[in-house]
Amino acid sequence: MSDSNGPSATALDTFPRLLMHHARVRPQRPAMREKAFGIWQTYTWSQVAENVRAIACGLAELGFRRGDRLAIIGDNRPRLYWSVAACQCLGGIPVMLYQDAVAEEMAYVLQDAEIKFAVVEDQEQVDKMLEIADQVPLLEHVVYDEARGMRHYTQTMLMGLDELQEMGRIHDRNQSDFLNGEIGKGSSEDISVMLYTSGTTGKPKGVCQTHGAFIAAAKGGVEFDRLSEREDILSYLPMAWVGDHLFSFAQAMVAGFTINCPESGETVMTDLREIGPTYYFAPPRVFENLLTQVMIRMEDAGWFKRSVFHKYLEVARKVGADILDGKPVAAGDRFQYWLGNLLVFGPLKNVLGMSRIRVAYTAGAAIGPDLFRFYRSIGVNLKQLYGQTETCAYVCLQPDGQIKLDSVGVPAPQVEVKLADSGEILVKGPMLLKAYYKRPDATAESLNEDGYFLTGDAGYFDEDGHLKIIDRAKDVGKLNDGSMFAPNYIENKLKFFQHVKEAVCFGSGHDYVTAFINIELEAVGNWAERQGMSYAGYTDLAQQSKVYDLIRECIEKVNAELVSDPMMSGSQVRRFLILHKELDADDGELTRTRKVRRKFVAERYEVLIDALYSDRKNQYIETEVKYEDGRQGKIAADLRIEDCKTFPPQAGAKAA
Known about the structure:
The chain is built from 21 helices and 29 strands. The protein is an alpha/beta fold. The protein has a five-stranded parallel sheet with strand order 4-3-5-6-7, sandwiched between helices. Strands 12-13-14-15-16 form a five-stranded mixed sheet, sandwiched between helices. Among the domains are: about 15-280, 3-Layer(aba) Sandwich (Rossmann fold); about 475-645, ANL, C-terminal domain (GMP Synthetase, Chain A, domain 3, 2-Layer Sandwich).
């Protein structure tokens, strides 16, 4: 990270300094690509630095000052990433918001962060800003990236990003030393970004992270996986998510590799295949969806293709992970795997856009061991990491050759991890948050007297020093007979099945475990068509008896697995229902990162939980929903409630 003409590595302690360093030492290397109108546009590091300079000087001309907060709202776009860097150049604090959040949700963050300036992607986001303008009186300037549709907007607070940059270039010509001076004032202890928590248990909190914290996390990951400037990554996850900020911003700034922005959310898979990233990151939900698509396509394939696929998939399950880890494998099995790679795995990875992947990570939620095993078995070096927004998504990493399906690896470089007497995971290191914004009480509660961050997760170390996560500490409970109940563990097993999109389990303080199920509409719809079934929509399909039979089969397979686990054999699902609607972030049931807001769901569907723990066979419910256009309505249904087969625990397991 240093050169004979540039500053030493020790001086590269803020993101603006890292950016200017790359512009000096690798000016013509591609820093970013964006697909627009079907064509990939490339921006070199020198071009990125020039654009960031223009945006920063333009913001300064508008009155942006050190310490001000800049809201960034939109899909992954180069000019939005440049706006993050420009804000940091001025000593400001970028605050990313989820682009799919409704206006009311945005109002809370804009108020809480005391936002005066916002850079947004397009007309849709501008409309949200105008809708809530009276609720956020501090908001003075809204700068938009995409000018399409903005011709007749006359509000004085609005300005195009092109106009801002032109104003900035004039400012830079007139005061050529200004921006260098502002960058020089920066410190590694300055707040580099404010990311809001997902709010699973209450209102989101603004997590203030310093340049030093994110650079330490980025450097640790880059060195751990030997990343270089030659990597390509597809940046498609929400910019407001800590995972994207670590992988698509911080690590790119440290290593100097290339960020690729897709054309739209709908073209991500096509763009993924075209880019062929060498480094990839996705939450479990994305990997689940990709596997579901594969399985749907195979069900529609002819008999011969299906037979070949499943034959070699068995070979992959048997030896694929061992081959990937460099472990000894019999010559016959190795040959069979080579043949499978030629006929099945290679073409499959090509279709998924994973042919060039050297390292892939998943985080954000626990991933089911079966799902994890599938990708590693076909030769994708998928690994888990563990972290939170408050730790820059950097706590544990899995070393190559030491991958365990049910662990999140070992403590990352410079990170200390220990367990409290209660089993809660405590972490310490340079990547910890500086504070929750305007919440000294919450900051004090999150750190103990020794400076360890209280993660709220329960886990334990295995004999090799690998950390295993059981569940959120607050969610782990017990059944009335004393059996342990860890809902997330069961839910992840259920979600491995392509027909199950979401599952929410209940059981703490009860005699047995029950579950809400959301079916995967595309997968179950495809299956239903082959069965000759007709249906009018999600609610109709979800309540059909054949669909219940299909889901019951999935649950009973999970029960058969749980019975062999001494800790979890008592947590087999005994009764279930299929919800009449998909859990939705707009309805408050999920966070914007697709995590279930468990307490909210339990309160909203209390009548259904009561029915599951009674002898009722059905339950009527009427639920209010919000539509994308802002309208509200109701969905009503008489839900079926059905029993599942459970299995007696094996010897040595605690009886249910």
